[in-house]
């Protein structure tokens, strides 16, 4: 019985802990402005190629800013962690084909065991530069192992740049390519051979790779640029009126459900009257007499209303001759 008082404060703190360690892309607040980035959710991927005289390194970055990656965190036998939001899959091959090394590393995510929190940091770009509009979001929870086998903290810095003409989904890989690593690898190689560059050089893509490497504090940072209208300061307020269509949707569904219920009642009642009493015609309908009297009931009611309205200004008693 003494355990309950101890558990109650902890249970009350759970929502606070989730808010402190998570990132809700549908409710982003910064300097009094509200943003909704939920339309950018889903699994997306982009890649970057580094070439030297000895090695070719192809790194694919898979991300879902609004949810965990689940199955998308596993590619070509490599596992990054299903509770992560951003993962990297690096494939390093020697030019002469003598060596090949594949590795997966988490960049952003929240582990179930209490370590590796996201620790989100949200800053309006105008706070950093008055000529820019959008958001800078820093997320953590990853780990990168260097060539010297040293474990370093990893995270991501995503700049959501305001672009009223872009949804943010332009040029992103299809779900089929994201979930099919073999198809994805072939597509990446084909594009690189055709264009001579990686996806970061494709200006038609709203999501762009900027860099990945050690930061000033000896952590490894993935930097991305994401152009989207959803990071504009006034997007939600300007489009608030358009969202009122959802109320009409509720009434539409209510009318549809009501119509289906009435139809089911009439059909079942007609079937019951036919099988039980052998009814025909109007007698098939449940409460058929009432239904047939509806026009007369409405006519009487309408006549009473008219008489009431007309009699309001009339004078009672006999009129003078």
From TrEMBL:
SUPFAM superfamilies, alphabetized: Mannose 6-phosphate receptor domain (SSF50911)
Occurrences of domain MRH (ranges): 23-234
Subcellular location: Cytoplasmic vesicle membrane; Golgi apparatus membrane; Mitochondrion membrane; Preautophagosomal structure membrane
Any Pfam family the entry gives: ATG27
One GO cellular component, as annotated: cytoplasmic vesicle membrane
Signal peptide range in chain numbering: 1-20
Acetylation keyword on record: no
TM ranges: 248-268
Keyword Mitochondrion: yes
Residue segments, region Disordered: 169-211
Biased composition (Basic and acidic residues): 180-195
InterPro entries for the chain: Autophagy-rel_prot_27, Man6P_isomerase_rcpt-bd_dom_sf, MRH_dom
Family annotation (PANTHER family): AUTOPHAGY-RELATED PROTEIN 27, MANNOSE-6-PHOSPHATE RECEPTOR FAMILY MEMBER
Record-given protein name: Autophagy-related protein 27
Organism (species): Aspergillus sclerotialis
């Amino acid at each position: 019985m003494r355990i309950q008082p101890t558990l109650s404060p902890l249970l009350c703190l759970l929502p606070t802990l989730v808010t402190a360690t998570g990132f809700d892309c549908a409710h982003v607040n910064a300097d009094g402005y509200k943003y909704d980035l939920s339309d950018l959710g889903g699994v997306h991927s982009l890649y970057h190629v580094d070439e030297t005289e000895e090695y070719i390194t192809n790194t694919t970055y898979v991300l879902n800013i609004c949810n965990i990656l689940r199955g998308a965190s596993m590619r070509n036998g490599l596992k990054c962690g299903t509770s992560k939001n951003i993962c990297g899959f690096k494939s390093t091959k020697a030019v002469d084909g003598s060596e090949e090394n594949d590795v997966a590393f988490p960049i952003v995510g929240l582990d179930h065991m209490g370590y590796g929190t996201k620790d989100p940091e949200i800053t309006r770009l105008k706070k950093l530069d008055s000529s820019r509009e959008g958001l800078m979001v820093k997320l953590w929870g990853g780990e990168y192992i260097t060539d010297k086998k040293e474990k370093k903290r990893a995270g991501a810095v995503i700049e959501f740049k305001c672009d009223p003409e872009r949804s943010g989904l332009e040029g992103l890989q299809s779900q089929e390519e994201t979930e099919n690593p073999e198809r994805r690898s072939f597509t990446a190689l084909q594009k690189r051979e055709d264009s001579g560059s990686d996806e970061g050089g494709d200006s038609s893509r709203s999501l762009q790779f900027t860099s990945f490497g050690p930061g000033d504090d000896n952590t490894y940072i993935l930097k991305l640029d994401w152009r989207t209208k959803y990071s504009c300061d006034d997007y939600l307020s300007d489009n608030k009126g358009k969202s009122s269509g959802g109320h009409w949707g509720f009434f539409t569904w209510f009318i549809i459900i009501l119509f289906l219920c009435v139809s089911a009642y009439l059909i079942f009642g007609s079937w019951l009257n036919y099988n039980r009493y052998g009814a025909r015609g109007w007698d098939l309908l449940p409460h058929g007499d009432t239904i047939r009297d509806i026009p007369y009931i409405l006519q009487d009611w309408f006549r009473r209303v008219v008489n009431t309205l007309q009699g309001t200004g009339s004078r009672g008693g006999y009129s003078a001759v």
